[in-house]
Specification:
The complex is a heterodimer of chains A (about 110) and B (about 110).
Chain A: E1 3-5, E2 10-14, E3 19-21, E4 24-26, E5 32-38, E6 44-50, E7 56-58, E8 64-68, E9 73-78, E10 87-94, E11 102-104, E12 108-113
Chain B: E1 4-7, E2 10-13, E3 19-25, E4 31-37, E5 43-51, E6 54-57, E7 64-66, E8 76-78, E9 87-94, E10 102-104, E11 108-112
Parallel strand pairs in B: 2-11
Antiparallel strand pairs in B: 1-3, 3-8, 4-5, 4-9, 5-6, 7-8, 9-10, 9-11
Classes of the chains: A mainly beta (about 110), B mainly beta (about 110).
């Protein structure tokens, strides 16, 4: 069965520093990959997605992610974080044999130090 | 203005009462989902519907019920059989069964005392 692992429950980063959030998945074929962001008490917003093609994808709010097939990873990056980036970030995988649903990681909470 | 509406934002109920959470969409999406979110547990799928008048149980369907009589609406009833109903509930839509990308409503926080 497919699974998604976000190994970091919390990450603390200083404002202006770079960020990398990790996501690993388990799936035999190339999956459809997503990163979502959730501010406290809000719904989820799509940051970016990978379906095929260029393995480095750009998203909203200055985020990017890189698909690495050899490592089964889809890590999210941002070169310089802002206080407004403090939120919870979810990685998700879609695969045909999951009945077209998304399989979700447990989330990583990003804390920004001033 | 297209979107997904969940109402109310906050809901309070006494133990033993059934309560229905509303989810409405005007995106013309075929599929709709209900998730439950508890601190530190990510999103857990309760029910989903890929077409009107049809729905399937997700991973944690016990104590919940749904209906899908209209494409625009997918209400979730939390019954008294749900042992721990206090949580944040999220509704999502998906354009079609092979599109994967999901769009989320703002959520309803249910507190049962």
């Amino acid at each position: 069965a497919q699974s998604v692992t976000q190994p970091d429950i919390h990450i603390t980063v200083s404002e202006g520093a770079s960020l990398e959030l990790r996501c690993n998945y388990s799936y035999g074929a190339t999956p459809y990959l997503f990163w979502y962001v959730q501010s406290p008490g809000q719904g989820l917003q799509l940051l970016l997605k990978y379906f095929s093609g260029d393995t480095l994808v750009q998203g909203i709010k200055g985020f990017e992610a890189e698909f690495k097939r050899s490592q089964s990873s889809f890590n999210l990056r941002k070169p310089s974080v802002h206080w407004s980036d403090a939120a919870e970030y979810f990685c998700a995988v879609g695969a045909q044999d999951s009945n077209y649903q998304l399989i979700w990681g447990a989330g990583t909470k990003l804390i920004i130090k001033p | 203005d297209g979107g997904i509406t969940q109402s109310p934002k906050y809901l309070f109920r006494k133990e033993g009462q059934n309560v229905t959470l509303s989810c409405e969409q005007n995106l013309n999406h075929d599929a709709m989902y209900w998730y439950r979110q508890d601190p530190g547990q990510g999103l857990r799928l309760i029910y989903y519907s890929q077409i009107v008048n049809d729905f399937q149980k997700g991973d944690i369907a016990e104590g919940y019920s749904v209906s899908r009589e209209k494409k625009e609406s997918f209400p979730l009833t939390v019954t008294s059989a749900q042992k721990n109903p206090t949580a944040f509930y999220l509704c999502a839509t998906q354009q079609g069964p092979q599109t994967y990308e999901q769009y989320f409503g703002p959520g309803t926080r249910l507190t049962v005392t």
